[in-house]
Design goal:
The chain is an alpha/beta fold. It has one domain (3-235): 3-Layer(aba) Sandwich (Rossmann fold), CATH 3.40.50.720. Helices cover 41% and strands 16% of the residues. The chain has eight helices and nine strands. The strands form two sheets. A seven-stranded parallel sheet has the order 3-2-1-4-5-6-9, sandwiched between helices. A two-stranded parallel ribbon has the order 7-8. Strand 1 (3-6), helix 1 (12-23) and strand 2 (27-32) form a beta-alpha-beta unit. Helix 1 packs across helix 8 and helix 4 runs parallel beside helix 5. The longest helix is centred in the middle third of the chain and has 29 residues, at 99-127. The radius of gyration is 17 Å and the shape is globular. The model has no long low-confidence stretch (mean pLDDT 98). Bound molecules: NADPH dihydro-nicotinamide-adenine-dinucleotide phosphate and 2-hydroxyethylsulfonic acid (8X3). NADPH dihydro-nicotinamide-adenine-dinucleotide phosphate binds at residues 7-14, 32-34, 57-59, 84-87, 108, 135, 137, 180, 182-183, 185-187, 190, 211.
Length: 250
């Protein structure tokens, strides 16, 4: 049985991915800061597969390395890494941007992803096998108004994804990114700091992607035969044409 390490498993895409991969008999290491949610998910999925949880903040470099190093022997060989944890913080023109928001996006979406990867990739290299999926965004592919720093953080994920694939290619490790458009999760609640008046309308007037839609695609990607690497995948809801063009007339 394979083992997958999923960051950001307490909510949205990460949580749905855990549920979906359990159906495929993949053992799980589930991460996030909200331990009570991790415990609840572990209890639910342990009926199907082995589950280990790690509660830590991926901004904390020492803690990230320590937590991953602490994995019990039966969870040490990670076959699949899903670098999913991340969020947008704020939606402001650059001249009004909040520096704490900028720090959060760069520290979580970029540096946190690198810390986790640094802890896991050497094991994959020594085993000469592994599969890494980086969750980017359409924000990696085009910049939209007031989202410059979030888009920059996801462009960095896109570049890191390509860099990983180049460097890990000779070690037999598959690397690919999935770039979703609008997915109805807690994403907008986080972006607007709990302000539901701003978060709810983001997903109104059209059918957004669901976390399950992305989880389904991730399950497809990780179950392809070894010689198939889905390297770069952009997924929009049908109502969305670009980051800024959304058909809300239906
Ligand atoms: P959610 O807000 O629902 O989930 C975000 C997850 O990231 C949570 O599990 C959260 O866990 C975790 N996380 C956030 N900050 C940290 C941190 N400092 N340390 C550890 N874990 C953290 O959003 P989504 O499911 O939508 O987002 C998942 C990924 O998908 C993100 O990378 C996002 O950028 C990307 N994405 C989302 C889209 C969307 O429209 N929703 C579209 C394109 C990409 P906890 O708070 O418990 O730590
Ligand atoms: C999330 C997509 O366009 O809401 O990465 O920022 S968007």
């Amino acid at each position: 049985m394979k083992t997958a390490f999923i960051t950001g498993a307490t909510s949205g895409i990460g949580k749905s991915t855990a549920i979906e991969l359990a159906k495929h008999q993949i053992n799980l290491i589930l991460c996030g800061r909200r331990k009570e949610r991790l415990l609840a998910l572990k209890e639910e999925l342990e009926k199907q597969v082995q589950v280990h949880i790690l509660a830590f903040d991926i901004r904390d470099r020492e803690e990230t390395l320590k937590q991953i190093d602490s994995l019990p022997d039966n969870f040490k060989n990670i076959d699949i890494l899903i670098n999913n944890a991340g969020n947008a913080h704020g939606l402001d023109p650059i001249q009004e941007g909040n520096i704490d928001d900028w720090d959060a996006m760069i520290d979580i979406n970029v540096k946190g992803l690198l810390y986790v990867s640094k802890a896991i990739i050497p094991g994959m290299v020594s085993r000469q096998s592994g599969h890494i999926i980086n969750i980017g965004s359409i924000a990696a592919k085009s910049v939209y108004p007031n989202g410059g720093v979030y888009c920059a953080s996801k462009s960095a994920v896109d570049a890191i994804n390509t860099g990983m694939r180049i460097d890990l290619n000779k070690h037999g490790i598959r690397v690919g990114a999935i770039h979703p458009g609008l997915v109805a999760t807690e994403f907008s609640e986080v972006r607007f700091k709990g302000d539901q008046q701003k978060a709810i309308p983001v997903y109104e007037g059209y059918t957004p992607l669901s976390a399950e839609d992305i989880a389904d695609i991730i399950a497809f990607v990780v179950t392809r035969p070894y010689h198939v690497n889905i390297a770069d995948l952009v997924v929009y809801p049908t109502a969305q044409a670009t980051a800024s063009i959304i058909n809300k007339t239906s």
